[in-house]
Amino acid sequence: MLEVGCGTGFLSQRLLERFGPAARHRPLCFTDLAPEMVAACQRRLDSLDSQQPGSQQPDSQQPDSQQPYQFQILDGEALRSATTARLGLIASSFALQWFNNPQTILEQWLQCLVPGGWLALAFPTCHSFRQLRTQCQTLGLPDPILALPDPTPLIAHFHNRTRQCIFHQAFVPLEAPNARAFLRHFHRIGAVPTAAGLGANPAANPAANSAASSARSRSAPLSTGQLRRLIRCWDGTSPQGITVDYHVTYLLLQR
Questions:
Q1: Which one of 48, 117, 149, 154 has the lowest number of neighbouring Cβ atoms within 10 Å?
Q2: C-alpha pair distances (Å), 62 with each of 43, 45, 106, 118, 166
Q3: What is this structure's pTM?
Q4: CATH number for position 104
């Protein structure tokens, strides 16, 4: 079992809770392109393990068949060439949007599964952030959001190419006290091409920023003046705070 794009370990923790006892002889492997994210995930899972009564701190960097999890710095686009063993489960949450060709990536990941194995995904779609897009349209500003996957052709493509194709879609709200805080959040994760003057650290997520660089040409960056105008007008129409929806597709594919 392997996770692509483990990040800080939110999904990793759930996978360990669900599959940990069964993974003693076949460890879970948590991967991410960014070494900082792999380290953060390891700290999270190791701290959970140390909180168990009578437990010992695991050395998860050592190849030990008794350890329920391992970590690896890995580019999801190279998974097929980097993985020799066939997997029963590949899971990934909010990583697919960083790849240039999601359909090709999913086809490659499916080839890494044993027959009957599962690919479990969650990703934001092109229907996300409609409130931000509406604000930009009202002000005559370009759309600043990087291109996100369209779930409809993906689902249609894999519907007849897998044993099972199960999906669910939902709007998930994200709340922020004001427009500046909201835009700073997206700048931190590399989802907004230009966020000058927002006080964010562009190196906070180097893997996300690197993966997003090739997609920047598909969206129009906002200038500092345009961002200030957006913040001022959005706060004026939403004095009680900002709510913006992710549109999330949850997708299960069985090889």
A1: 48
A2: 15, 15, 30, 27, 37
A3: 0.82
A4: 3.40.50.150
How far apart CA 188 and CA 183 sit, in angstroms, is 9
- For 220, the token pair is 């129009």
Q: How many CA atoms lie within 13 A of 146 on its CB side?
A: 24
Q: In this predicted model, what pLDDT tens digit does every residue of 140-162 receive, in sequence order?
A: 999 888 889 999 999 999 999 99
Cα–Cα distances (Å) from 135 to 138, 139, 149, 218, 225, in that order, read: 5, 6, 21, 19, 15
The pairing of beta strand 242-254 with beta strand 164-176: antiparallel
Q: Which domain holds residue 249?
A: 75-254
Contact assessment for residue 114 and residue 61, using Cβ atoms and an 8 Å cutoff: no
Q: What is the pLDDT of residues 74-120, one digit of tens each?
A: 999 999 888 878 999 999 999 999 999 999 999 999 999 999 999 99
Structural domain includes residue 28: no
* CB-CB neighbours of 181 under 10 Å: 14
Query: Cα 155 to the chain's mean position, in Å?
Result: 18
